[in-house]
Amino acid sequence: MSLSTPAHTPQSGLILAVNAGSSSLKISLFHRVSDIAPEKGSTHDVVSLLLNSNVSNISAPPASFTFSLVSHREGREANKQPVESIKDHATAFSHFLDYLKEEASIDRTEIVHVCHRVVHGGDYLEPVVITEESYHHIETLSDLAPLHNGGALSVMEACIVALPRANSIAYFDTLFHRPIPEHIASYAIRQDIAKKRGLKKYGFHGLSYSYILEAVSQYLQKDPSEMNLIVMHLGSGASVCVIKNGKAYDTTMGLTPLNGLPGATRSGTVDPSLIFHYTNRAGRITHDRRLAVDVHVTLAEDILNRRAGWAALTGTADFAVIVRKMKEAGPDASGGWDGEQKYRLAFDLFVDRIVGYLGSYFVKLRGKVDALVFSGGIGEHSVELREEVARKVACLGFVIDEKANAEVGSGDWVVAEVGANHDDGKRMLVCQTDEQLEMAKECALESRFWEQVLN
Ligand SMILES: Nc1ncnc2c1ncn2[C@@H]1O[C@H](COP(=O)(O)OP(=O)(O)O)[C@@H](O)[C@H]1O
Ligand SMILES: CC(=O)OP(=O)(O)O
Ligand SMILES: [Mg+2]
């Protein structure tokens, strides 16, 4: 593969933001607003949305595809179409590009920058333009994010072919967590080995936490640097982050996105010794042919990343199905392991792990918490999950407003109030996170990316 710095289309300002999640590809196209306020973190709109597209269930085909233009005058809207040809992130991106060409009169040569969410950024300290060197460096980190980095890299490769005039820029999930203090980010192992091999807590979902911090501080009209938040990003991958005085202070994911909460196909934290009792071939390397880059993970890592979580407990990786089946069975169902009880087990287990971290993080903030925030597909949409978590943390002073909680829907809002306490600092909020918008805003505000392009 050959990567070189592309030539730009002058005067144009389209930003494509691509978010390769573990089971989804979320894509948004933005126009950069020309009179941008200079300082970062500005409340002015620096980009305007043109379209959104989402491919979900990539890891459990058939994948579903949606596409919607902000202005319906051009093209049409695709509402949840199953697409058999989508097998991975690269084919998902290619389907999106075909759809864009056929259904919207947007000239893709006007895309100046493609922002890629890259989950593992190792020790990168800022977003990086993709060159031969940075591409290969991100590739070397793929073993530490086996469900993620490969997908993002395959989309970068597709961009080089399909959008040769656009810059690809990597935005890292890990950046937000750089301020986590050393005693929290370190593992209790020999530090010479840890430092040499980069064995520490990196933390992920950072683009989401960064977006949420700004959105909630605007909502509460408080400076981000004064905010103490406990934020739950609950999606196919799930994590919790504690933000102290506007900076990451701790988070549940670690060296890799496997640690902490369970997820769609991930176990979350287990006793490390469990690995060797689960299978006696745990240390063997498995080569995953479904990924675009060669990922070298052990059988144990493969099992805990891809063959655990909701999918292993219940047979479905879709948390909405788990909640529905659990409710159909009713509170007293006793279907045994193979019956409906497995859905209740998955739900209760998830709630248990979440509230364990909430308690720990509440103590880390010495009880000074501006808000508990729910986000991610499950946090934003599951009334039941929010209600149950709230019930369990009522002892800390968080009280849910059941009516407000039940009425949270999708739509144009960013932050919604679901707590009954609005004044005493123990608020409960839902935030519709937007990693693509976070990347596009950061990109639009970064003058070094625009100097040569727009002059
Ligand atoms: N109403 C709902 N109730 C419970 N879970 C839901 C609901 N709607 C969506 N979800 C879950 O959200 C998860 C996807 O979250 P999302 O953050 O969009 O995914 P990703 O991690 O791929 O970015 C899926 O497990 C989906 O089932
Ligand atoms: C880091 C992570 O798990 O991301 P996602 O939830 O998008 O899979
Ligand atoms: Mg995600």
Automatic annotation (TrEMBL):
It is an enzyme of class 2 (transferase). GO terms for biological process: acetate metabolic process; acetyl-CoA biosynthetic process. Its cofactor is Mg(2+). Pathway: Metabolic intermediate biosynthesis; acetyl-CoA biosynthesis; acetyl-CoA from acetate: step 1/2. The record marks 205, 266 as: Transition state stabilizer. The active site is at residue 173. The keyword Ligase does not apply. Mg(2+) binds at residues 19, 435. Its EC number is 2.7.2.1. Keywords: ATP-binding, Kinase, Magnesium, Metal-binding, Nucleotide-binding, Transferase. One of its GO terms (molecular function) is acetate kinase activity. Gene3D superfamilies: 3.30.420.40. This is Probable acetate kinase. It comes from Sparassis crispa.
